[in-house]
Write a structure and sequence with these properties.
Layout: H1 38-49, H2 55-59, H3 63-78, E1 82-88, E2 95-101, H4 102-112, E3 117-119, E4 127-129, H5 134-141, H6 148-159, E5 160-162, H7 171-181, E6 188-192, E7 199-203, H8 206-232, H9 236-241, H10 244-257
Antiparallel strand pairs: 1-2, 3-4, 4-5, 6-7
Length: about 260
């Protein structure tokens, strides 16, 4: 079959927009979801799709701020206003379906992200901590700690603003403070099972879900490029230059000819 060129897209006027763009451009194919660690993946996505397009800026942001920004990228990419999730009841084993409004998650993060964490320790002064950042995650990944208590102590020491270093017995209080004061980092949904009425606390890995869905979007884009390039002889750059709505129409035509 003779190779053909895709029809040129009409010229458009750029409009300034401080919001995130959808994940799915040519540069997004460079993100290696299979090999990079999670903190690096989040930074790579945000540096491409969020404002500013600066990896060092996003490494320096609090983990909760990074998660909220990643959820905004997901919303712009999927065109959805909520995350639809399914969990399993720990009591009866039936499925629980619920939705998380993406806008509300981002708005909640803005209310608390600038405040330090405050942990009440029995019989001692309160412990004040700054919020962990992407840079902290990157440093801790290569820290080489010898045990969990050692890791917790050194992580807290790196974040400590004021107050005593915690002991191993303080870990439950630290976890509770994180869940209450930095909820996007340790997110959970409290609900009741509609089948047996048992109270549930469902942990939700917001960052992991967002990355998984963006990875699936990247895979779908690669499949689209493969099909269009195989059929029309276009290069990857030429396929990606065609607006997504028109790519879907070409793919439907190919499907109709099968």
């Amino acid at each position: 079959m003779t190779a053909s060129r895709p029809p040129a897209a009409p010229a458009t006027t750029a409009v300034a927009d401080d919001g995130p763009r959808a994940f799915g451009s040519a540069v997004d194919l460079e993100v290696d979801f299979a090999r990079d660690d999670r903190a690096t993946l989040v930074t790579a996505v945000l540096a491409r799709c969020a404002t500013p397009h600066d990896a060092s800026h996003w490494w320096a942001q609090a983990v909760s701020t990074r998660t909220a920004a990643l959820l905004r990228v997901l919303a712009a990419s999927d065109g959805e206003s909520a995350l639809s999730l399914v969990a399993r009841c720990g009591a009866c084993g039936e499925s629980l379906e619920f939705e998380l409004p993406l806008a509300a998650l981002g708005a909640a993060e803005a209310d608390y992200s600038s405040r330090p964490l405050r942990v009440t320790l029995p019989g001692r002064p309160a412990l004040s901590l700054r919020r962990p950042t992407g840079d902290d995650l990157r440093a801790w990944r290569h820290a080489g700690w010898t045990s969990r208590p050692d890791a917790v102590r050194r992580m807290v020491d790196a974040l400590r603003i004021a107050g005593p270093l915690p002991t191993a017995d303080d870990e439950p209080a630290l976890a509770a403070a994180l869940a209450e004061q930095d909820p996007l980092v340790a997110f959970a949904v409290d609900c009741r099972c509609p089948h047996c009425d048992a109270a549930q606390s469902v942990s939700v890995d917001l960052e992991g879900i967002a990355l998984s869905r963006l990875a699936a979007r990247q895979d779908a884009l690669l499949r689209d490029v493969h099909r269009l390039a195989s059929r029309y002889g276009w290069t990857e750059a030429e396929v990606l230059a065609v607006p997504a709505t028109r790519r879907r129409r070409y793919l439907a035509l190919i499907e109709g000819d099968a």
